[in-house]
Amino acid sequence: MARRLSLFAVALAIVAFAVYWWLTMPSTVAAGTLPAHTPDLANGKTVFNAAGCASCHAVPNQQDRTRLGGGLPLTSPFGTFYAPNISPDPNDGIGQWTEAQFVKAVVHGVSPDGAHYFPAFPYTSYHGAKIADVRDLFAYIKTLPPVSGKAPDHAVGFPFNIRRNIGIWKLLFMDRQPPVMDAARSPQWNRGAYLVNVLGHCAECHSPRNMLGGIITAQRFAGGPNPEGKGWVPNITQKNLADWSDKDLAYFLESGLLPDGDSAGGSMASVIKNTSQLSADDRAAMAVYLKSLPAVEGPKRPQSK
Amino acid sequence: MKRVFVTVTAILLGIGGVSAQQDILSQRQTAMKENGRNLGGVLGAMAKGEKPYDQAAIDAALAKLADNAKAMSGHFPDSTKGLKAEGKYSASPKIWDSRADFESHIASYSKAISEVKASVKDIDTLKAAVPVLGKQCSGCHETYRLQNS
User: Fold this and answer.
1) Selection from A219, A201, A226 nearest residue A294 by Cα
2) A106 touches chain B (CB under 8 A)
3) Counting one residue from A and one from B, how many pairs have CB atoms under 8 Å apart?
4) Residue A228 scores a pLDDT above 80
């Protein structure tokens, strides 16, 4: 009897592990599934700026936004992540990657060797990117200078350091974006929705997160405690920005200046370095979309003394 | 008796020291808010088309910004390192840890103001100039300004 029970337990464990393995299996993109594509480098540069690649991947403490050697630490409640080298260096960067591997990394958060990336890399937002945009981005990054040197390993504690578990996290929290195409809205609104939700990944910081680090969907864009530590990320729904005109928003994205003359600081200063490179049309589209966000009450900010 | 005298004097001096530092913090904030009014309320408002173009007002605003830039370094004496200010923001201790870099930001800001002074002649040159100044503000606030939480 005992023997039969223990056999049963072993079988159950094997099945449970198989289910876990299946649930956490990284998705792949086969090279053959990508249709022919002539890269548009100008669009690749726009995608690069809209997606804010340089904010994390450019070498810290220097001015050149195209040196993508990585190394910037990103602190979080789960540990410290270090942005990797995504320059075209063949040894330390992504110089040997195929286009399909790059698409898989950006859109599915899976590395060339089939491991899940930590969602500190905002592939949850990039998941909705147009494949042509990602391919243009790849072509653009390939034109940038190779930078040698690897970033430090992520300093993340158990159990968050088990990458396979991120497969479960993805099942819970990926694909939770609002639809970014709405035929009833203007092309400008649709472009803005795409830039804000997908490439700009604004919700990644401007939304509160639950204990597992997933965005609380009902309070998307309603601000919350700064995931990087001190301070508070503002609510960018109309609850907080009703006083801002479209023009104020577009101007802020261009100049970093708030309507009252205050200026962007902290991580937002780095975001403005990206948005100031976009076209005036793209900034106007982002403003139109942001103005359309219904007022949502965010988490309550503790009163400071 | 002597001990009481010494204690009381020490306390009074201590309070005097603290309030002198609080004065420095509030002067710093007044200067920053004045910069904000000149940038957002005058230059930015005109660049956005909310106010009519007015060269005299622009010149006055830029002169005020230049004056405040000259006084900027003095608003951050060593005695105020680590002090939390009232309101939304405080100065990061990094200012004093990397003072040379902080001073180079002030120098680059002052240079930008004089360049803008020379370049702004009409609405188009103003439109080009304000984001240049905005970038200077953010360039320092990115690293050296902390939110109070």
Assistant:
1) A219
2) no
3) 91
4) no
Sign of CA dihedral B68, B70, B74, B76: positive
Distances (CA, A) of A267 to A118, B101, B138, B145: 20, 19, 10, 11
Tell me the C-alpha distance between A187 and A190, whole Å.
5
Q: Which of A231, A248, A266 is opposite residue B142, by nearest beta carbon?
A: A266
A43, two tokens: 């669009």
> What six digits make up the tokens of B137?
């503000």
| Residue-wise pLDDT tens digits, A134-164 | 999 999 999 999 999 999 999 998 888 899 9
Contacts of B133 in chain A (CB under 8 A): 255
Considering CB atoms only, which of B40, B139, B149 is closest to A269?
A: B139
Residue contact A232–B149, C-beta within 8 A: yes
Both tokens of residue A287? Answer: 């403003």
Encoded tokens for B111: 């240079």
* pTM beyond cutoff 0.80: yes
Q: Do A269 and B41 touch (CB under 8 A)?
A: no
